[in-house]
Amino acid sequence: MMDTAALSALSEPKRQQIVELLAEGPLTVGEIAETLCLRQPQTSKHLRVLLEAGIVNVRAEANRRSYSLRPEPFQAMDHWLNAFRNLWMERLDNLDHYLQQLQSKDKKQDR
Amino acid sequence: MMDTAALSALSEPKRQQIVELLAEGPLTVGEIAETLCLRQPQTSKHLRVLLEAGIVNVRAEANRRSYSLRPEPFQAMDHWLNAFRNLWMERLDNLDHYLQQLQSKDKKQDR
DNA sequence: TTATAATATTCCTTTACAGGAATATTCCTG
DNA sequence: CAGGAATATTCCTGTAAAGGAATATTATAA
User: Fold this and answer.
1) How far is A79 from B76, CA to CA, in rounded Å?
2) In chain B, what are the domain boundaries?
3) Which candidate from B10, B69, B74 shows the least CB-CB separation from A7?
4) Is the Cβ atom of A59 within 7 Å of strand C at any atom?
5) Is the CB of residue B41 inside 7 Å of nucleic acid strand D?
6) DSSP string computed for A28-76
7) In what order do the strands lie in the sheet with A27-28?
8) What would be the CATH architecture of the domain defined by B4-70?
9) What is the distance in angstroms measured between the alpha-carbon CA of B20 and the sugar C1' of C27?
10) Inter-chain CB proximity A69 and B81 less than 8 Å
């Protein structure tokens, strides 16, 4: 199961915007608020939700706080999606082939 | 922006379970309810949400309804994640290399 | 230490949504 | 057409969560 807190946090439009913004690099609360035309308190609230969902990190920098993305939840989503890839990868034989290649690589590493 | 309705639908634990179950193939309401120990009305409600979010399809089959996954939202999530892959793909030089290969392929196609 | 910028929190109100229970609908079978 | 299975819908209630406004906190600079 994919972490529902993370999905829930990302299902809010403005939080998703924040996350997309942070994909380009760490930002402070004020920068985020200004870029997305949000009020500061709401921005802080959204960031708190993202923080508690494990989606962002904070770093205190003097007077301000720099928020940045944590890789784990996105990586987890990517892995979770594996269970669904065959839905749209029509050429399953190619997928099989790919998986076989992975296996042979593993075997090589065993040696 | 990733479709927030889809994410919202998936952020509910039982709906996520339903989706994971459907990943293995289409199922009817009763089958889903029994497998996940849900009551039938709740199951139908969850399926309705998933339906309106574009995550599942229905097919009327005689007395029952068969629900199945639609590939699009998952594919969309996969594409959306591309903006975040550099967060956990440490070897960015490899990614660069890969992108350069893609570009040269495009150029070949132009000729 | 005081003023000020940057950020966080609280309180309030409104809205959305999940679960339970009961009921309605639809479709097959005899 | 009547009965019954499979599914959908409605009503109700409690709870969580978002936005606005005001306020509290923290840390820097003078």
Assistant:
1) 15
2) 4-70, 74-110
3) B10
4) no
5) yes
6) EHHHHHHHHT--HHHHHHHHHHHHHTTSEEEEEETTEEEEEE-SHHHHH
7) A27-28, A64-69, A56-61
8) Orthogonal Bundle (1.10)
9) 29
10) no
Supply the pLDDT for residue B106.
58
Average pLDDT over all residues of chain A: 89
Which pLDDT does position A89 carry in this prediction? 86
Instruction: Answer for A27: CB within 7 Å of strand C.
Output: no
* Within A 75-94, residues with CB less than 7 Å from strand D: none
Task: Tell me whether residues A83 and B10 touch, CB distance under 8 A.
Answer: no
* Residues in B 48-67 with any Cβ partner in A closer than 8 A: none
Does A8 sit within 8 Å of B16, measured CB to CB? no
Mean pLDDT, contiguous 10-residue spans, chain B (111 residues): 97 98 97 97 98 97 94 97 91 62 56 41
Looking at residue B111, its pLDDT comes to 41
Residue type, B93: D
The model's pTM = 0.85
Adjacent-strand bridge partners of A60: A65
- Tens digit of each residue's pLDDT (9 = 90 or more) over A18-67: 999 999 999 999 999 999 999 999 999 999 999 999 999 999 988 899 99
The minimal CB distance from A84 to the residues B2, B11, B23 is found for B23
**Which residue, chain included where needed, has tokens 């994909």?**
A23
**pLDDT tops 60 at residue A111:** no
